[in-house]
Amino acid sequence: MTLLNTYIEEIELFNPAYGLVKVKDRQELVVKHILDSLGPLGIIRRLLNRNRGGSSAIADAGSGAGLPGIPLAICLTGHSFTFIERMGKRAGFLRNTQAVLGLRHVAVDALEMERAAPGRFSLITFRALSPLNPVLLTSLFRLLGSEGILAAYKGRKNRIETEMRAVEYLTAGWEAMPLQVPFLEEERHLVIIRKPVDEL
User: Fold this and answer.
1) pLDDT (tens digit, 9 = 90+) per residue, 78-88?
2) Cut 0.90: pTM above it
3) Which of 46, 68, 73, 121 has the fewest Cβ atoms within 10 Å of its own Cβ atom?
4) Phi, psi at residue 30, to the nearest 5°?
5) Using CA of residue 172, residue 178, residue 181, residue 184, what is the dihedral sign?
6) CB neighbours of 24 closer than 8 A, spacing ≥ 6?
7) Is residue 199 part of a domain?
8) In a domain, 200, yes or no
9) What does the alpha-carbon distance between residue 97 and residue 99 come to, in Å, rounded to a whole number?
10) What count of Cα atoms within 13 Å lies in the side-chain half-sphere of residue 114?
11) pLDDT tens digit string along 52-66?
């Protein structure tokens, strides 16, 4: 909990200058961003445990303020994380926060997804990339290894279904898993999107 408190303080310190998140107070920051990031922690743990119990390489795409990446990295210390963020100021915030929190299993890639090295990750999380379209989905799949999975933080089920209808032909299947985020009355889901098996 101490690391999460320190992370919250870092956001509050840099938010006025960097515009990291739109919140009116700490309570909103904690509920809508920290608790929301940790809402699917159990699901993500189960997905990672299927990787023969070993360490997995996880990316947080379009990481911004490090959401959900930093809260997840604080809780999942046995796995490596890469935060992919193209905006220089935000990448600088992520590097500073990584150093302040002492997260040695975290790296920051200050570049666009299209320029990131392919095939490195077994799981990619993202919150802010919306809506999904064929170009974006193809870029994300390129970063995954074989049998890699995307874990998208999304809201209402009906909007997810509409969004996925336009891209599901590119996937090996998807599932919207309902989430219960403490103190948040909005509908939330984690959308698991499976990468097709690479053709030989």
Assistant:
1) 999 999 999 99
2) yes
3) 46
4) -65, -50
5) positive
6) none
7) no
8) no
9) 5
10) 2
11) 556 799 999 999 999
